[in-house]
Amino acid sequence: MDEGSKVPDVTVTIDDAPVSLANLGTPLVVYFYPKDDTAGCTTEAKDFTALANDFAAAGVTVVGVSKDTPAAHAKFTAKHALAVQLASDVDGAACEAFGVWVEKAMYGRKYMGIERATFLFGADGTLAKTWRKVRVAGHADAVLATAKAL
User: Fold this and answer.
1) pLDDT digits (tens, 9 = 90+) for 20-66
2) What number of CA atoms fall less than 13 Å from residue 48's CA on the CB side?
3) Domains of the chain by residue range
4) 31 to 15, 21, 25, 78, 109: CA distances (angstroms)
5) What is the mean pLDDT of the chain?
6) Which residue among 41, 94, 100, 114 is the active-site one?
7) Helix, strand or coil, per DSSP, at residue 101
8) Is 41 a catalytic residue?
9) Rounded to two decimals, what is the model's pTM?
10) Would you place residue 117 in the very low, low, confident or very high pLDDT band (cuts 50, 70, 90)?
């Protein structure tokens, strides 16, 4: 996905309801993360939650996407009091559309998984900024600063 691309019209599940990412409104932050309730993913979700009011004040919708089920998202949200929307992409359509389903390696073993990445779409619905291979520390703050500058 290149800067200037429109929000892909792919369907994810939010709160047990199918929703098109293209219909969530703009500006929009879509962040992809590998798995609910793992260390980095929990920290990232908590960081976005801590800034949820700031994103809302700036008129920016934030949604986190993983291949976890809606039930897993509900449990994760309740456990950590998360204030960001979490979307399930069980079939991988959103991961494919955004190009985040990639080959990874851990301990010499190769496997397919979600690359931690964030996409910021401006008010006109076009991709304004992409963060790939995200390092969690300070990331939500950087996304908010960039969103406010649009």
Assistant:
1) 999 998 999 999 999 999 999 999 999 999 999 999 999 999 999 99
2) 26
3) 11-149
4) 17, 12, 15, 19, 25
5) 95
6) 41
7) strand
8) yes
9) 0.94
10) very high
